[in-house]
Amino acid sequence: MQKDLKIGDQSVPYTIKLSRRARRMRISVGSEAAVVVTLPWGFKQTYAEKFVEQKRQWILKSLDYFKKFSGRILPKASRHEYLNRRQEALALAQRKVLQWNGIYGFSHKRISIKNQKTRWGSCSKKGNLNFNYKIVHLPENLVDYLVAHELCHLKEFNHSQKFWALVGRAVPDYKKLRRQLRNFGSVFVS
Fold it and tell me: In angstroms, rounded to a whole number, what is the distance separating the alpha carbons of residues 76 and 46?
C-alpha cells in the first residue's frame, strides 16, 4: 500500500508491506529513495503511519545520505550477483579473519558466505562465522570492523559492555564504524 509522508511543502512516498515473518515494525530507505515500512501481520496500518511520523528525521537523514551516492549506487542483490561475487567475498572474509584473529586468537570453525537481505554477518554458537557476500562492496575499514565484531562473538555471545570492550581493543573507533555500517546497509535493503 502506497502512502505519503508530508514534510513541509513536499511529500515523500512510502510503501507499507505486511509480513508474516516480521516480528517488529521496520523502516528501510533504499538507494533509489524508496521508503518501505515492514509491518508484522495483524498490525493495523495506523501503527505504520505513526511509526513513520516518529521516524521522520531519520528518514530525511537517510534520504540525504543517498544523495551522496548519486550515479554510483551499488547493485541490487540478485542470485547472479551473489554467485559471481561469492568466492571473492569468501577470500576477503578469510583474509580478514586471519588478520584480526592474530590479535584475538579465538578458535572458530567454518567461514561461510551468504546472500542475506539485512545482515552483514553473524556468529553461531557452534563457532561458525557467516558473512554477507556484499562485504566486497564495503570500504576496507568497515570490513575490518565487521570481522572484528563477529570474532568477538566467539568469546562474548552478546552485546554487553564486555563484548564492546573486546571489540574496542582492536577497533577503537568501533562506534563510528558501526554507525557507518548501518547507514551503508540501507543501500541493500528494499
Answer: 30
Distance CA 20, CA 38 (A): 10
User: For residue 39, what are the domain limits?
Assistant: 2-67
Residues 54 and 83 in one domain: no
Q: Tell me the C-alpha distance between 71 and 26, whole Å.
A: 27
Half-sphere exposure of 143 (CA within 13 A, CB side): 21
137-148 pLDDT, tens digit per residue, is 888 999 999 999
Q: How long a stretch of residues is the chain? A: 190
* The overall pTM is greater than 0.90: no
CATH number for the domain including 176? Answer: 3.30.2010.10
Which residue is listed with cell 528518514? 59
From the CA atom positions of the chain, what is the Rg in Å?
Answer: 18
In this structure, the number of other CB atoms found within 10 A of the CB of residue 94 comes to 15
How is residue 137 annotated by DSSP?
G
Q: How many domains does the chain have?
A: 2
Task: Measure the CA–CA gap between 70 and 106, rounded to whole angstroms.
Answer: 41
Residue 64: burial class (beta carbons within 10 Å; 0-12, 13-18, 19+): exposed
Which pLDDT tens digit goes with each residue over 3-13? Answer: 776 666 667 78
189 three-class SS: coil
